[in-house]
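A further point concerns the way the authors explain their paired sequence and structure data. Nothing conveys this as quickly as seeing an actual entry. An entry of this sort, consisting of the sequence and the corresponding backbone structure tokens, reads as follows:
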Amino acid sequence: MMNLLHWRLLVAVADAGNMSRGAERVGITQSGASQAIAQLEASLGFKVFTRERRHIGITALGEQVVEQARAMVERLDAIRALADDSRGLNGGRIRLASFPSVISTLLPGLLRDFQRRHPGIALVALEGTDEEVEAWLAAGTVELGVVLNPAPGRAAALLGRDAWVAVLPSSHPLGRRASAAGVTLGEVAAQPFILATGGCAVHGQRLVEQAGLRLPDIRVTVRDWASACMLVREGMGVALVPESTLPEDRRGLRVMQLMPPVHREFGLVCSEAAKASRPVQAFLTGLLPAQ
């Protein structure tokens, strides 16, 4: 069955002339976009796009479909703008702060979707360390902030959860065991260590200390998770990083789960002054169905 996402995607792919860029504009993966377009074409009974090596063309019938879809999407956006006006939402502003790894992975799709649904609300994303995010929330400098491992009941919405993993050089002795066996924090802490902070107070050293252990041999400290993985690949040590920050190219690396597993959660916290904000409540309401 065709829905609004299909039509928005259709217009985005037609405008971009490329499946991956069209998918990015509506906040879905390239594989998800390809599947959605195939479903739409099957439902219509004819091809909308012609596939070439690096470019997507539009068939004659497809041109007419895209024209109608564009008009439909524009009218729906106009209706939403009227609804926002009636609720006093247009002209509002939300400042949302987060640490780097979440801004680059979890937030882009959420922000694009919200701006599409509420174009009259200005949404500004600010990047900082998790300590800076907490300070901005306390001072009311931002309306919303992504907080790492929020206390129970503090977060207005949970955005995600991911596991900490050990990253080893591919030839490391600990990596010779089966992946399912994993490694312990104690085993990792005893190795020459690359400490990556990711701009967060919760990082490898904090995890080790919370387990009553220590890191006796920190070779290098970096902020960027990707830099830590590059240094591990060069054989300078091992690292603890969140699973969501692992590089796509893992040649030269061996990734092992921690046993017992250790996770981190991302919660969206509202500043005291912003709890009555209509734009903020509109943003949070849009997240609730996904919780």
About this structure: The radius of gyration is 23 Å.
